[in-house]
Write a structure and sequence with these properties.
By secondary structure, the chain is mainly alpha-helical. It has three helices and no strands.
């Protein structure tokens, strides 16, 4: 097995992992859009009145949780993908100089 074969294996493995993460992100987006965002989005606009959230029903708390975790997952995956792209470009650039 050569070094090139290892890089190809790693790229295929990372592609599978990205596909799985994209599926998770898509599910979060769909669930938060259909189920939750419409219930809590008005309360998240502008200045947030935290006292209003004390009156939420269990479903609104679930909607808020799904919405906030969906946003966090989106930001996390975007940053991870950006970092991975930067590392990949650097690796390709330095391999071209050898």
């Amino acid at each position: 097995m050569t070094l090139n074969d290892l890089f190809q294996y790693q790229e295929k493995f990372q592609a599978k992992r990205r596909d799985t993460l994209l599926m998770i992100l898509t599910v979060f987006t769909v669930v938060s859009g259909i189920y939750g965002m419409n219930q809590v989005i008005e309360d998240l606009k502008g200045k947030i009145e935290w006292s209003k959230m004390l009156e939420y029903s269990p479903f609104e708390y679930l909607a808020l949780f799904v919405a906030l975790t969906g946003i966090a997952v989106s930001i996390g995956l975007s940053l991870k993908q950006l970092w991975s792209g930067i590392r990949s470009r650097r690796r390709k650039r330095y391999q071209g100089h050898d």
